[in-house]
Design goal:
Distance between the termini of chain A: 45 Å
Number of domains of chain B: 1
CATH superfamily of the domain at 814-980 in chain A: PurM-like C-terminal domain
Shape of chain B: globular
Strand order of the largest sheet of chain A: 17-19-16-20-18-21-22
Largest interface: A-B, 76 and 77 residues
Radius of gyration of chain B: 18 Å
Strand content of chain A: 15-25%
CATH topology of the domain at 814-980 in chain A: Phosphoribosyl-aminoimidazole Synthetase, Chain A, domain 2
Helix content of chain A: 25-40%
Number of strands of chain A: 40
Oligomer: heterodimer
Strand content of chain B: 15-25%
Number of helices of chain A: 29
CATH superfamily of chain B: Class I glutamine amidotransferase (GATase) domain
CATH class of chain B: Alpha Beta
Structural class of chain B: alpha/beta
Order of helices and strands of chain B: EHEHEHEHEEEEHEEEHH
């Protein structure tokens, strides 16, 4: 083991980071008077030591001497009350440490040996009158116990010898082998095996849930008893991965009631796409749907674009930063793994979290064990995670959203999406098709394999031995993936060096290799060839590990040398781990022993079919009793400050949305910088076309009417793109169902209705689904501080994301009102539809009348607006959504930093007219010159509400009900997240 | 943020001078560096192509291995990106890789009639290599690009004003293009600052939309840079480091406020430009080789 340990400490002479860091800590109510930050590099070697001189030269490489200083094996001098050092736990990816190691290797032309490394940590010197409680709270904001190690010293303890050098070694003792697992158990024990996992022969501890139910375990037992042997743990874990809800989507695949014999997916999602494609005929835009890692549509004659939206909910609940980061870099791999590899060109995000101003006290375990993270910590972490992922990878993130509801407190939803671009052909080869052939080598490229993410979704505190690698969470390494992505997409693909590729996500190589094996009907893997982060992993762990940044490729023998030479030059690790066969079997060896030998048919199709029964109970909620206030100034200001309506610009500006040079309409628009509902980006720089992204999400409608929630989500996703000038013909959709308690018939009944809504509204608009993903159990079960059990389930949530191709970005329309004298219109009818609306929520009500949608009228309206925009006679357009017309008018005015004079019709209650969330509507502004042409195209659907003028938003019904300076609206709109 | 609504000085209100006309062309090729997380090489290549100069994107390891030669080029570009994830300081690790493996070739390259451009992460690399300011051709670190004042990455459009009249700024009245960095907070000692000023090495400054000084005010000066400095040259003027990204706003429709400007121009009966004024920057570089 390592015998030489040195510590280099780096600090700024004047640290520019301190003000924002101190402000942030103070905003949490911790009375820090002064803060200092020290970056630590711990160098641990065994084969050679470094002299003090050498270490000084290393220190000089790690700083900029203009602003920084370093010390070598000497504690940084300072005066403070507490020193808190935060580093990583053993086995956690340490990107900074890795970079420092590479720099040292380069500088001295050496190679660190196995077990030698550089570890980074940060030391915080805290001054202030800090109580024990505050210190704990502070530590909780600086470190996550699942990822970080923390050492705290008082000044007295520190002053003579500094912090203690610490090396987070991974220590694993035995070199375990595969074991046979006895399935000849009674049903009770068998069920326990499925629920809690295989018992470890040495410790008796369970390895973590297989999530296999009795039916499935019986099927596995029958299969192996026919073979005349017991399954190995490798086989059982592998089947558990392949048959998991995550991979097989059993709930969407199972027959349901009497009327959905083929299951929800085939009946409502796939069938919708098939019908639309048939009806569109020559105008079909789909290239690849549902079968590959992403869905793909036609961009132009030469290029296609892909899109995929994933969720990463459980990991983000445990470690928001790591969970969100691996979420986004994971979905990037779904792009790199589309066809022979598409280039990721746009990232997309969505977060459902609890109210960040709330501070719920809840625990995963009894007796205050494992407290949940606060919504604020979760929000901060996921925002940063997706940002780091996209920014470091050079992928712009122009579009996304945030939705708040207390029912996301136990389990946040984190959506991460990526759009890719790829030529249809390269030198005659169709790049969107792939097929491994028998004899092709199986190559794993990218990162190494550790215990990361094994049985990731669950963990127990007992499992967290201080010297054991953390398995529940992973930290991504975007730079390792960027190197991998670059060498594949920008070099190897067009050199024709491989025949098939897929990403390693859930289930690791056990899923990716078995999936690719379908293309040629077999595979033979040598697990001992897989490069590991540290020795001592069991074969089943290597097989199902979810370590990040890995792709699996099928490489013809004659190309392997060229491929290996190329990746070596790009410093990307790649290893042959087996070969594809046509044996019909998935065979896995470990040090000469066959540890898995399962028929591919059984592996992929042996899963016993389920039949699900649903019920549905229409819920009724009291209607609000409030009368319409005579004056709505205060109301509109409060509404603009609602977290689901106000500006979350702090997210947009910390996400690079201009890299790759295609920015057209960004995340915020206009002089007043209002967040837009859709973005537009050129993904092929010399084309005049662009890619638009938008979405619809209305979780507050689901408990009232899940069918209409689907209507709202689909209509809003489409309308966002219509508003920037994309034609309905060029729009495709993606569905993400995030449900709760999906073993309860009533929840399944809601699911069925939502799925039926997806079919009805997608087919009515002719917008095909091209990809989708579901996450069915977003429930939190835990305890309050008095050990009372608490269960929090997310509201059934359907995210519809849309992607569309703009024919000419120079004709695109932004959301901001532009010039005085322009006319303001609302297009589309307004009904008293406020059930589940933001306004009713503001009134502490839910109500029952969720917006309905007349798709026939809407479709024709959208086509007419597209025609008007293509004639360039629309100055601005905004799709009415959360908070209704009043919010739309206010945002259009704020964005333009210009006032409006609006008269609303009589009939409806003014507040209902202004805050109704009726679908299918737009607010548009049109110049006087274009009025006639505009009204001719749009017809009676367009209602002129007033004009753009002055500096105030003035809305008049019978009398003036709103009269506020736009500046005041802007302040309200931007105030809730000002300090973020 | 205060934006001019009707002012003629509104940043994207005009096209570049060479709009649509044929730019000058050169047979010289640029070498655009890539690898380890650099990520803006393709749009940088596109910018030079449009300005009339071809280029090769070369992975640093191919230079180190001798598969490509620096001496075959006269323009070296370090594009934007996140080399090594900004670990150990933005641009520092990539600069170390250059210094530890390519230093002799680089020094020879600098001695010839050549230009070097570093944008964003490229500027951070140049600063850590000491290629700017390089007083008396001493390649030492004299400046730093520190973490932004706000402590997070900032992506937004900024207005830039040329400060010196040199080959890089010719015919540029202003530029309007994105920044996107976590560490762009320019810092140097007071003595260095005086030298930068007296030798006219400060090339671009962040400014307000009406081109009056930003005076450190956020968001015009987006990161806290000393004296609103956005870009400086080496003492001999042949190396430029620039934090903002003109290559990300080559077209009129790339500009933040183009929908507004378009409506305005349409109503004034003006013809809409294709290119943005930022292209002049690249044309100036290409002109040097013509």
């Amino acid at each position: 083991m390592t015998s030489f340990i040195h510590r280099i400490e780096v600090h700024y002479k004047q640290d520019p980071r301190l003000k924002s860091r101190t402000d942030r800590i103070r905003s949490l109510g911790i009375p820090v008077s002064k803060l200092h930050l020290i970056d630590i590099y711990t160098i641990a070697t065994s084969s050679r030591d470094f002299t003090h001189d050498e270490l000084c030269r290393i220190g000089a490489q790690l700083i900029n001497p203009v602003v920084q200083e370093y010390t070598v094996d000497t504690a940084t001098g300072a005066f403070f009350d507490y020193a808190i050092e935060v580093g990583f736990l053993p086995g956690i990816t340490d990107n900074i440490g890795t970079t420092a190691k590479q720099t040292i290797e380069d500088y001295y032309s050496i190679r660190f040996k196995e077990g030698e490394s550089v570890y980074s940590s940060q030391l915080f010197f805290i001054c202030g009158n800090i109580s024990e409680d505050s210190l704990q709270k502070l530590t909780a904001t600086l470190a996550n116990p699942l990822v970080n190690r923390v050492h705290i010293k008082t000044y007295e303890e520190y002053k003579n010898k500094g912090m203690d050098p610490f090396v987070p070694y991974v220590r694993l003792h035995e070199l375990p082998n595969a074991e046979a697992v006895d399935l000849d158990l009674d049903d009770k024990d068998l069920a326990r095996l499925g629920k809690e996992g295989i018992p470890d022969t040495l410790t008796g501890q369970r390895r973590g849930p297989l999530a296999l139910d009795l039916h499935q375990l019986h099927a596995i037992r029958d299969y192996f008893s026919k073979k005349g042997r017991k399954p190995t743990d490798v086989e059982l874990e592998s089947l558990a991965q392949t048959w998991s809800e995550h991979c097989k989507h059993t709930i969407f695949a199972s027959s349901m009631d009497d009327d959905v014999p083929k299951g929800l997916y085939k009946t409502f999602i796939q069938a919708a796409t098939n019908k639309i494609r048939r009806e569109k005929g020559d105008k079909d835009i789909c290239v690849t749907v549902f079968t590959d890692n992403s869905g793909a549509i036609i961009f132009d004659d030469s290029y296609l674009v892909t899109h995929k939206v994933e969720t990463h909910n459980s990991p983000s609940a445990l470690d928001p930063f790591g969970g969100a980061l691996t979420g986004i870099v994971g979905v990037n791999r779904d792009t790199i793994g589309f066809g022979l590899g598409a280039k990721p060109c746009l990232n997309y995000y969505g977060y459902c979290v609890g109210d960040p101003d709330s501070d719920p006290v809840l625990f995963r375990g009894k007796n205050k064990a494992n407290p949940i993270l606060s919504p604020r910590q979760i929000l901060d972490g996921v925002v940063r995670g997706v940002g780091v992922g996209g920014n470091c990878s050079g992928i712009p993130t122009p579009q996304g959203w945030c939705y708040f509801n207390d029912r996301y407190t136990g389990k946040p939803l984190v959506f991460a999406g990526t759009v890719g671009v790829m030529p249809f052909r390269h030198k005659g080869r169709k790049l969107f098709l792939k097929r491994a052939k028998p004899g092709d080598l199986i190559v794993m490229a990218g990162g190494r394999v550790g215990k990361d993410g094994i049985h990731g979704a669950t963990f127990s505190s007992e499992a967290l031995d201080p010297a054991s690698p953390v398995t529940a969470v992973q930290i991504g390494d975007p730079i390792t993936q960027k190197k991998l992505s670059d060498v594949i997409i920008k070099e190897a693909r067009d050199l024709g060096l491989y025949r098939s590729i897929t990403d390693n996500g859930a289930g690791g190589i056990s899923c990716s290799v078995a999936e690719m094996a379908k293309e040629c009907n077999g595979c033979h893997v040598f697990l001992d060839q897989v490069p590991l982060k540290y020795p001592g992993m069991a074969p089943w762990e290597i097989w199902i590990s979810e370590s990040q940044e890995r792709m699996t490729l099928a490489i013809p023998k004659e190309k392997i040398d060229e491929f290996m030479d190329l990746v070596q030059r790009r410093e990307v690790e790649a290893t042959v781990i087996g070969k594809f066969t046509d044996s019909g079997r998935c065979v896995v060896e470990y040090h000469g022993d066959v540890v898995m030998d399962v028929d591919l048919d059984f592996l992929h199709d042996g899963l016993p079919k389920k039949h699900l029964k649903t019920t549905y109970t229409q819920k009724m909620y009291p209607e609000p009793k409030t009368a319409c206030p005579a004056q709505l100034d205060q109301t509109i200001l409060f509404m603009l400050q609602r977290k689901n309506i106000c500006s979350k610009e702090f997210i947009s500006t910390q996400y690079d949305h201009t890299v790759q040079g295609g920015h057209v309409l960004g995340p915020v628009q206009g002089k007043g910088r209002v967040q837009a509902t859709a973005s537009l980006t050129k993904v092929v720089l010399d084309s005049k076309k662009g890619v638009g992204l938008s979405q619809g999400i209305f979780p507050s409608y689901s408990e009232i009417d899940p069918y209409l929630m689907a209507a709202a989500a689909i209509d809003t996703a489409i309308r966002g793109l219509i508003a920037i000038g994309i034609s309905l013909d060029n729009i495709a959709l993606l569905d993400n169902f995030c449900w709760c308690s999906s073993d309860e018939p009533d929840r399944l009944g809601q699911l069925k209705r939502a799925a039926k809504g997806c079919y009805d509204f997608a087919t009515a608009f002719g917008t095909p689904f091209i990809s989708g993903k579901d996450s069915m159990f977003n429930d939190f079960s835990g305890f309050d501080s008095d050990n009372n059990p608490v269960r929090i389930s997310v509201p059934p949530t359907l995210l519809i994301s849309s992607i569309g191709i703009h024919d000419d970005v120079a004709k695109a329309v932004s959301i901001d009102a532009k010039f005085e004298g322009d006319f303001v219109y609302v297009i589309g009818e307004t009904f008293p539809e406020l059930g589940g609306s933001e306004y009713f929520a503001f009134l502490d009500s839910i109500g029952n009348k969720v917006p309905k949608l007349d798709t026939k009228k809407a479709k024709s309206r959208y086509q007419r607006l597209t025609a008007a925009i293509s004639k360039e006679i629309v100055a601005s357009a905004y799709p009415v959504n959360h908070g209704g017309l009043a919010m739309a008018l206010a945002k259009v005015a704020i964005a333009g930093r210009i006032g409006m004079e609006i008269a609303i019709p009589s009939g409806l209650r003014p507040d209902y007219f202004l805050f109704s969330e009726s679908l299918g509507r737009f607010v548009v502004t049109v110049s006087k010159d274009n009025k006639k042409a505009f009204e001719e195209i749009i017809g009676g659907d367009a209602m002129r509400l007033g004009t753009v003028c002055g500096r105030a938003l003035r809305i008049t019904g019978q009398k003036t009900i709103i009269d506020l300076p736009v500046e005041e609206l802007e302040t309200a709109y931007k105030s809730p997240f000002l300090g973020y | 943020m205060k934006m001019t609504s009707n002012s003629e000085k509104s940043p994207s209100g005009r096209a570049g001078k060479n709009d649509i006309s044929n730019p000058a062309k050169t047979d010289e090729k640029a070498i655009i560096m890539s690898g380890y997380g650099i990520n803006s090489e393709m749009e940088t290549q596109e910018a030079f192509k449009r300005a009339g100069m071809g280029s090769d994107i070369v992975h640093i390891n191919d230079l180190i291995a001798g598969r490509k030669k620096l001496s075959d080029y006269r323009l070296l570009v370090f594009p934007g990106g996140f080399s090594y994830g900004d670990d150990t300081g933005a641009g520092n690790a990539y600069a170390n890789r250059v210094r530890n493996n390519l230093w002799d070739d680089l020094e020879k390259f600098l001695d010839n009639d050549t230009l070097v451009l570093g944008i964003c992460n490229g500027f951070q690399i140049l600063a850590n290599l000491g290629l700017v300011p390089a007083f008396n051709k001493k390649y030492e670190r004299d400046i730093a690009l520190m973490p932004n004042r706000k402590g997070v990455l900032e992506c937004r459009f900024v207005t830039l004003k040329p400060v010196s009249d040199n080959l890089w700024t010719r015919d540029i009245e202003w530029m309007y293009c994105p920044i996107s960095h976590g560490e762009g907070n320019f810092f140097c000692s007071p003595e260095t600052l005086v030298r930068l000023k007296t030798k006219n090495m400060i090339t671009f400054q962040y400014c307000q939309d009406n081109l009056s000084p930003a005076n450190g005010e956020y968001p015009y000066n987006p990161n806290g840079s000393t004296e609103d400095i956005a870009g400086i040259t080496s003492e001999n003027g042949k190396v430029l480091g620039l934090m903002p990204h003109p290559e990300r706003a080559m077209n009129f429709t790339n500009l933040y406020d183009w929908p507004y400007q378009k409506e305005k121009m349409k109503r004034e009966g003006k013809k809409l430009p294709q290119e943005s004024l930022n292209m002049q920057f690249f044309k100036n570089i290409v002109n040097y080789f013509c």
